[in-house]
């Protein structure tokens, strides 16, 4: 049965096979077998430009970024494929 994680800014359901780390406005969700990771950093005080700069500075080389919109939430999505 899916588990629900939520804060005042977001809500997420993850499958039982995924694990969660962190709390509050920073959380990471991942599959223990290493295939798939979702990191969430939420803040009402960080502007879109600041968020994009933070993501680029703190992501592995080769990560591609695009705008992400989900309902009222807006942010930055990064993707990288190894192998």
Describe the 3D structure:
The strands form three sheets. A three-stranded antiparallel sheet has the order 3-4-5, with no helix packed on it. A two-stranded antiparallel ribbon has the order 1-2. The protein has 83 residues and is mostly beta strands. The protein is built from one helix and seven strands.
Write the layout of secondary structure elements.
Layout: E1 3-6, E2 11-14, E3 19-23, E4 26-30, E5 37-41, H1 48-57, E6 64-70, E7 73-79
Antiparallel strand pairs: 1-2, 3-4, 4-5, 6-7
Keywords:
mainly beta, 83 residues, 1 helix
What series of H and E elements makes up the topology? EEEEEHEE
Biggest sheet: strand arrangement:
3-4-5
| Tally of distinct domains | 1
Helix-strand makeup class: mainly beta
Number of helices: 1
Shape estimate: globular
Percent helix: 10-25%
């Amino acid at each position: 049965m899916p588990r629900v994680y939520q804060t005042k800014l977001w809500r997420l359901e993850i499958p039982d096979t995924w694990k969660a780390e962190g709390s509050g406005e920073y959380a990471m969700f991942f599959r223990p077998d290493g295939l798939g990771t979702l990191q969430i950093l939420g803040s009402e005080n960080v502007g879109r430009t600041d968020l994009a700069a933070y993501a680029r500075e703190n992501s592995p080389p080769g990560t591609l970024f695009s705008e992400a919109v989900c309902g009222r939430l807006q942010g930055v999505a990064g993707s990288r494929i190894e192998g």
